[in-house]
Amino acid sequence: MSHENRNKHLDFIMASISRMAQNSFLARGWCVTLTSALLAVLSRLEEPPTYTLVLVPIVLFWVVDAYYLKLEREFRGLYDIVRLLPEGEIDFSMNARQAQGNVSIANTLFSGILVFIYGGLILLVVFFIFFLEK
Fold first, then answer.
1. 34 near 57, Cβ under 8 Å?
2. With contact defined as beta carbons under 8 Å apart, do 4 and 86 qualify?
3. What is the per-residue pLDDT for 42?
4. What's the rounded Cα separation, in Å, for the pair 71 and 112?
5. Tell me: the pLDDT tens digits for 41-76?
6. Domain extent listing, the chain
């Protein structure tokens, strides 16, 4: 029995999962780069800078990263559904919301890796605020 349709559908889903993971990785990289650049520029100013401005892009990138991670988890759920479907029921649907399960933006925002990365950046900025702004 051929599973050509299922395999092709699973390939489509895996491509989407890879794109979401790549977007998430890029958001993290841009956030670290932008945060470092802002801290470097602000530390060179003659007037005392407001380091709290650096928190804005960190929070924005945190939300963007959580969104891509949420989408990635939804597509992983869709993958699990499609791999168990009989060959005749493969419809090539890419609607990942049908596999949503426990995936919510709030759960994703506070997942371990995101809290570690963005929380660490926030702690770094707080360090700059309290120890270097004086």
1. yes
2. no
3. 82
4. 17
5. 887 877 766 778 889 999 999 999 999 999 999 999
6. 4-132
**How many Å apart are CA 27 and CA 24, to the nearest integer?**
5
* Res 11: pLDDT: 93
Please answer whether residues 133 and 51 qualify as being in contact, where contact means their C-beta atoms are separated by less than 8 angstroms. Answer: yes
> In which residue are the tokens 């995936």 written?
103
The residue among 25, 118, 112, 4 whose CA lies nearest residue 72 is 25
| Helical ranges in the chain per DSSP H | 4-44, 55-84, 105-109, 112-127
pLDDT digits (tens, 9 = 90+) for 78-105: 898 888 888 888 888 888 777 766 678 8
- Sequence-distant (6+) residues with CB within 8 A of 96 are 16, 71, 74, 75, 77, 78
Q: What are phi and psi of 22, to 5 degrees?
A: -65, -40
Query: What is the radius of gyration, based on Cα positions, of the chain?
Result: 20
For residues 116 and 110, give the distance between their C-alpha atoms in angstroms, rounded to a whole number: 9
Distance, in Å, from the CA atom of 110 to the CA atom of 51, rounded to the nearest integer, reads: 24
